[in-house]
Amino acid sequence: MLLIVSLIIWTSLLDNYSLAQNTTQHTYLEYISMEKKIISDLEAYIDNQESVLQMLRKKLLTFKVEHSDAVRHHDKYFTNELNKFLFIKRLSSDINLMSLRTFEEANKFKSLIAYYVSEKMLPTEYDLRQSLLEIVRVKNLYKLRTDKIARGFFGTKQKRTSLSTEDCYKIGKQLNSAKLYSEAIEWLKEALKHYNEYYDLHQVSAIEILEELAVSFINDNQEQKARDVIGRILMMDSSNKILSNLERTKRHTITDLCRPVEELLSFLTFTCPMYI
After folding, report:
1. Residue ranges of the chain whose pLDDT lies below 70
2. Could you tell me which of 128, 98, 133, 122 has the C-alpha nearest to residue 41?
3. What pLDDT does 199 receive?
């Protein structure tokens, strides 16, 4: 009887897992369509901004030429009524127009993304949280190394290109929010490694990574390592507010991005068929 009940429960779990996988797959396909649209939107935005930049470059050249002439020959320059008019125009309507054009395209793109979010056409913070939990679950289930995963390896197979510095930082930051500090430390160290190894345009600064790493060490009771990291931060930026920020972080731990650690650990204990 117990065996039959166990089989029924296991079958139900597998059915639910299969249903969740199918639903997820369907959702991903919907998001692929949205990603295609966003690529198109982004291309249009960049094209428009490049047109604005061309206009700004022309204006800048005019500003430089006229400014140089006015500085060198100011006694004659301002005796010309046209020069006086154009000078005032540059510092009033031209400046306002440039400001308007510069932010106009950005605001259009921002409004478009806000619309997609409001209509629930894009993944949410919850979706991001779930994808993070899956990385942690797979890593612990198969005892994988963080540095290998960060370089796209699952076991001995490379399944994708390396994660960026910002990707590793984002994972570490959210693991801190979930109070999984030892896991966060691994990912933030990896972010620093990527930062130092790769010479691409980083979307996160070394100080931001170190600040998050200091939070991890303090909450993981590794006080000496935390002091060392804080020392590095203050050497890079003596006016950094890291100490006061850390005090605020310890008083108000962020929990809205990830589940509480107890729920996460409960999630990790459930194993389901997965092929790597």
Report:
1. 1-24, 199-201, 242-276
2. 122
3. 62
Contact by Cβ (8 Å): 174, 257 = yes
b/e per residue, 83-96, with b = 16+ CB within 10 A?
beeebeebeeeeee
Q: For residue 213, what pLDDT is reported?
A: 96
Tokens of 48: 């428009």
250: three-class secondary structure by DSSP = helix
pLDDT at position 247, please? 52
Q: Taking a C-beta distance cutoff of 8 angstroms, is the pair 228, 192 a contact? A: no
pLDDT of residue 22: 47
Phi, psi (degrees; rounded to nearest 5) at 62: -60, -45
Contacts of 156 (CB under 8 A, 6+ apart): none
Q: What is the pLDDT of residue 240?
A: 79
First to last CA, the chain: 34
Are the beta carbons of 17 and 272 closer than 8 angstroms?
yes
Please name the residues in contact with 83: beta carbons below 8 A apart, sequence gap of 6 or more.
66, 70, 77
